[in-house]
């Protein structure tokens, strides 16, 4: 993992480390955990793409769980409305 940081400039390393620290704090992960290491890997890849979008926003999008963006199921919609689904007899 540290080998991937060697090719980065000092400014890029600071961007990666500060963003990952902030992401870990927001998501209650230790930077040395598997999720922290995944965040570092994603951040290094993102910093190398040099997008104009805010870096932390890019990192948050890159690390979203695929389950975070699933459409709401009908059962969950009914639960949210406070009704229970009817069963077919």
Helix/strand layout:
Layout: H1 2-6, H2 10-26, H3 34-49, H4 55-63, H5 74-81
Helix pairs in contact: 2-3, 2-4, 3-4
- The count of domains is 1
Describe the sheet with the most strands: none
Q: Kindly state the percentage of residues in helix.
A: 55-70%
How large is the radius of gyration?
Answer: 19 Å
Strand content: under 5%
Q: On the 0-100 scale, what is the average pLDDT?
A: 74
Order of helices and strands: HHHHH
Structural class: mainly alpha
Shape label: globular
Distance between the termini: 58 Å
Structural overview:
The chain has 89 residues and is an all-alpha fold. It has one domain. It has 5 helices and no strands. α3 crosses α4. It is globular. The N and C termini lie far apart (58 Å). The mean pLDDT is 74.
Summary of the model, kept short:
The longest helix has 17 residues, at 10-26. By secondary structure, the protein is mainly alpha-helical. It contains five helices and no strands.
Key structural traits:
single chain, 89 residues, mainly alpha, 5 helices, 62% helix, globular
